[in-house]
Amino acid sequence: MKLYLSSFRLGNKPEALLTMLNGKSRTALIVNATDFLDPAERATRLAEEVERLRGIGLEPTEIDLRNYFGKTEELKSELLNYDLIWMRGGNIFVLRRAFRQSGADTFFVELLQSEKVVYGGYSAGIDILQPHLHGIELVDPPDIIPDGYDAEIIWDCLGVLPYCVAPHYKSDHPESADVDKTVDYYIENHIPFVALKDGQAIVIDGDSQSFVG
User: Fold this and answer.
1) Measured distance CA(101)–CA(95) in Å, rounded
2) Element (H, E) at 92
3) First to last CA, the chain
C-alpha cells in the first residue's frame, strides 16, 4: 500500500505524497465527512480543499459518495480512473456511513492493497482506516445524521491500520482538547494507537513506514 496519512490538511511534508505519485496527479477528492454542514459551507470547504491540492500540482475532482449509494460497482470502476484518492477530514461517523451505503467498505482495502491508487487524507481520512471508532465519539458526535444517511452508528472500520490514530494531538486545533480524552481512552483500554500533531504524517510505502513533519 501507498498511504500518506496527515494529521491536518497536507501536513508539513506533502513532497512525501508527491514522491509516491511519481508525477501522476489525477485525484479523486472525497469530502463526505463534511456532509453534515450547511450546503453553502460544505461548498466552501470543498473549494478550499481543491485549492490546496492544486497548489501542490494535483488535479482534483470531487467524487461524492452520496451519488453512489447502492451503486458499488460504479464507484469501484470510477475510482480506478484516478492516481490518488484524497479523503478530507470532518465527522468520521458520517464518513463511515457513506462508506457503508456506497459499498466502498466492500472493496476499499483490496483497492489499496493492489497499489493501483495512492491513498492520502487527514483526520477522519485517517480514522476510516483504523480497526474501530471506539473513543472517537469523545471528539466527533456519532449521532449527526445528514439527509439521505442511515441512522445506525457503525463502530467497526476498515482495519487497514493495526492501530488507532489520534490526529490533532497537542496542536493548535479546535478539537485538540477533546483528542486528549480519546488518548486517555486508548491508554485506559489498552488500545494500540499513534498520536499525531498537526503537521505530522504517517507515510506507508509497501513494507516501509515512517513519520514525517
Assistant:
1) 10
2) helix 92-102
3) 20
Query: Where do the DSSP E strands lie in the chain?
Result: 2-6, 26-30, 59-62, 84-87, 118-122, 164-166, 193-195, 201-205, 208-212
Instruction: Please tell me the distance from the alpha carbon of residue 18 to that of residue 4, in angstroms, as a whole number.
Output: 10
pLDDT per position as a tens digit, 51-85? 999 999 999 999 999 999 999 999 999 999 999 99
Amino acid present at 34 = T
Left, alpha or beta for 206 (phi > 0: left; psi -120 to 50: alpha)? Answer: left
Topology adopted by domain 2-212: Rossmann fold (3.40.50)
| Domain locations along the chain | 2-212
Instruction: Take residue 138 and report the three cell numbers written for it.
Output: 469523545
Q: Look-up: residue for cell 491513498?
A: 119
Q: The pTM is what?
A: 0.97
Q: Nearest 10 degrees: CA dihedral of 20, 32, 101, 99?
A: 30
Q: Kindly tell me the burial class for residue 40, based on how many C-beta atoms sit within 10 Å of its own C-beta (0-12, 13-18, 19 or more).
A: exposed
